[in-house]
Write a structure and sequence with these properties.
- It comes from Streptomyces poriferorum.
- Pfam families: FMN_red (PF03358).
- GO terms for molecular function: oxidoreductase activity.
- This is NAD(P)H-dependent oxidoreductase.
- With 185 residues, the chain is α/β, with parallel strands linked by helices.
- It has one domain (3-184): Rossmann fold, CATH 3.40.50.360.
- The chain is 39% helix and 21% strand.
- The chain is built from 6 helices and 5 strands.
- It has helices spanning 17-29, 63-73, 91-98, 120-132, 146-149, 162-184, and strands at 3-8, 35-40, 77-83, 107-115, 135-145.
- A 5-stranded parallel sheet has the order 2-1-3-4-5, sandwiched between helices.
- Helix 4 links the parallel strand 4 and strand 5 (135-145).
- The chain is globular and about 45 Å long.
- The protein starts with a strand and ends with a helix.
C-alpha cells in the first residue's frame, strides 16, 4: 500500500495552507488505498540552500538536510498543498524541493492550490520543477479560489464539490505511486 505525504507548502505565520492540508489529510486518511501523513516544511527549519555539493550527488553534510532527506525518502508519493505567491510557488517550498534530489525520484505527486485564481500558476511552476526532480505529476489538481473556498477569510470552507475533486487527485496519486514502485525497485 503506498505511503503518501500531504506536504504543507508554506511557512508563513497565519497561513491557511496548514488548514487546507489538514482537511486534505483527514479526507485522505479515510480512504483504504494508501496511508497518508502530514508533512509540514515549517517543521524542518531549512535555511536557504546551504549544501556544498549539488543534491544530485546525494552527499548531504548538514543535519537538517539529512533529516529532510530521510523524511522524504519514506514516501511513495506526495500531495503538495501550496498557496500562490506572485504567480508562483512559495520560496520555502521551492527551497525544500531543491535541497534534495534522489529522494524525490520516480514518485508521484498531485496538487491542491490556494489563491485568488485558485493557485493554478503556482502549480504550473511546480510541475516544471517536479519534472526536473523526476517526480511524475498527475493530471488532476484541486484549485481553491479564495472567493469561493474562503468566503470568510481566513476560515477555510470547501465548497460542495471539493471532496469529489480531491478524490480524483488522490485516486491518481495512489495509482501512480503504486505503479512507480516497480521503477524504484
Amino acid at each position: 500500500m503506498p505511503k503518501i505525504a500531504v506536504v504543507v507548502g508554506s511557512v508563513r505565520p497565519g497561513r491557511v495552507t496548514r488548514d487546507v492540508a489538514e482537511w486534505v489529510h483527514k479526507t485522505a486518511s479515510e480512504r483504504p488505498g494508501a496511508t497518508y501523513e502530514l508533512v509540514d516544511i515549517a517543521d524542518f527549519d531549512l535555511p536557504a540552500y546551504d549544501e556544498s555539493l549539488p543534491p544530485q550527488y546525494g552527499t548531504y553534510e548538514h543535519p537538517h538536510t539529512r533529516r529532510w532527506a530521510a523524511r522524504v525518502a519514506e514516501f511513495d508519493g506526495f500531495v503538495f498543498v501550496t498557496p500562490e505567491y506572485n504567480h508562483s510557488a512559495p520560496a520555502a517550498l521551492k527551497n525544500a524541493l531543491d535541497f534534495i534530489y534522489g529522494e524525490w525520484n520516480d514518485k508521484a505527486a498531485g496538487f491542491v492550490s490556494i489563491a485568488a485564481a485558485g493557485g493554478v500558476r503556482a502549480v504550473e511552476h511546480l510541475r516544471q520543477i517536479a519534472a526536473e526532480l523526476r517526480i511524475a505529476t498527475v493530471q488532476a489538481q484541486l484549485p481553491l479560489p479564495a472567493s469561493v473556498d474562503f468566503p470568510d477569510y481566513p476560515a477555510f470552507s470547501p465548497s460542495g464539490t471539493r471532496a469529489e475533486e480531491l478524490a480524483r487527485v488522490l485516486d491518481q496519486v495512489e495509482s501512480w505511486s503504486g505503479a512507480l514502485a516497480s521503477v524504484r525497485g
